[in-house]
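Budget justification, computational time. The allocation requested in the original proposal was used primarily to generate C-alpha cells for proteins on the priority list. As evidence of use, we reproduce two of the resulting records. The first is shown immediately below.
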Amino acid sequence: MDFPEELKYSKEHLWVRVEGDRAVIGVTDYAQVELGNVTSVELPEPGDELEQDDSFGSIEARKTVADLYAPLSGTVLEVNSELGTAPEFVNDDPYDGGWLVVIEMADAEELNLLMSAELYEDTVSVSED
C-alpha cells in the first residue's frame, strides 16, 4: 500500500495535497482497497462550501456506500468530472487521476488536525491487526 509522505491524511481515509491556499482531496490507497471496485462517486458542485468533518458526497462500491467527510473547510473550486464516467480511477490511481475535489482552504490551521503519512500508516496497520 502507498502512503505518500507529502500528503496529510484524515481519520476518514482521505488524503490532502496542499498547493498554496488550495487543497486537492482524494481517497487513500487503503480506503480504495477496503471499498473494493468503486462504481460511482457523488461529489459537490463548484462553489459549494465544505465544513471540516461534514459529509460532502459519497462513494459507492460493490461492497458498500460510504459518505465522504471533508478533511478541511473551504470552497469547492473544482471537482473531478472524469469520475462520473470513470469511477475506477479511484481504484486505479487514487493519488493522481482519482482525486475528488480541489478546495480553497478557509483555515490552513485545520491542516494541523490531520495525520502525517507515518501516523496514518501506523493507524491503518493497527486497524488491520
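The second record produced under the same allocation is shown here.
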Amino acid sequence: MSTDTQINDNMKALVLENYGEAFKVKTLPVPVPGKGQVLVRIIASGVNPLDTKIKRGEGKHARQAVPAVLGLDLAGIVVAIGADVTDFKPGDEVYGMAGGIGGRQGTLAEYAAVDAALLAPKAANISMREAAALPLVFITAWEGLVDRAQVKAGQRVLIHGGAGGIGHVAIQLARAFGATVFATGSSHSLAVIGQLGATAIDYKNMSVKEYVDKYTDGEGFDIVFDTVGGETLSQSFEAVRTYTGHVVSALGWGSHSLAPLSFRGATYSGVFTLLPMLTGKGMQHHGDILKEASKLAANGQLKPLLDSRSLSLEDTNLAYEAIESGSARGKLVINT
C-alpha cells in the first residue's frame, strides 16, 4: 500500500445498528485498501431515496445487513492505494457509487476502501458536494437512456419525474445527446423542468393521450424513461411510439400489463444499477460512465441540483427525514 500522508488508525462513522433506528456516531478502524482498491478520504456523501429505504429495512434488494455503515455515493481524495491499482494515485480527487450495499461499507464515514473500478476523476469545475450528488442518479440515467434506449439526436424523449434525482440529470443527458426532451412533474416542479431545457408537462392536468397528441401529433415518444414506477410505468406503455419506441424504467418492479406496449410493437427494458456492486461484475462500466459524466460537467452540460442545506454527519438523520417527508429541494449531501 502506498500513501502520501499520515492516516489515523480510527475514523468517525455513522452506524445503523437496527433497521428503523437513528444512526449512531461511532469510532471505527480506518479500513486498509486491498488488491484493486483505494482508500478515499470522504469529503461529501450524497443521500438518495434508496438510502432511506435501506435504513427502514425496506431495501432488501440492496442486501445490506445491520449493523452497517450506509451511504452509496461519495466524493473525496485518494490517500492510499492497494496492490494492482494503476489508474489513481494519492491526492487524486475522485467520486463514485462505492458502498452501502451488499455488505460493503457505506460512505457515511471519514474514510472508505473502494474498488478503484467504481471511481472516476472529479471534474475540476464542480465541487465535491456536486460530485457526491451525481453517481447513483447519473449511472442510472446513462444505463437507461444510453445503454438500453440508445438515445440519439433528433429523438423525442419523455422523462417521468423530471425534477427528481434521476430525472433532472436524465434531462441534461438526453439534451447532451441532441434529443428534444419533455418531462412530467407536478405544479411545483414545472419551473425547474423548464430551466433544465425540457418542455414541462403537468401530469395531473393532462392525460397521456392529451400530451401525446399535443407534443408528438399522436405518434408517441421515441423513448419514455420512467423514474417513478407503479402506474407511471403503465402509462409509459401508452405514450411510446409505435414500432420503434422504447420504454425503460428504473423502478419496474411491480406487475404490469404489457398489452399496451405489445399492441404498439414497442420494446421495454429495465435498469438495476446496483448489480455491479452486488455481483462484482461490470464495475468498470460504472467507472467509465462516471468518466463520461465528468466530461459533460467539464463542458457545462451537467450540473446537479443541490438542496441548499449544509449538513454534517451528525445531521444525517435530518437529511433522511427530509427525503422521506418530501421537503428536500434538490439532492441532499452530507459533509463528512
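A brief technical remark on that second record: The chain has eleven helices and 16 strands.
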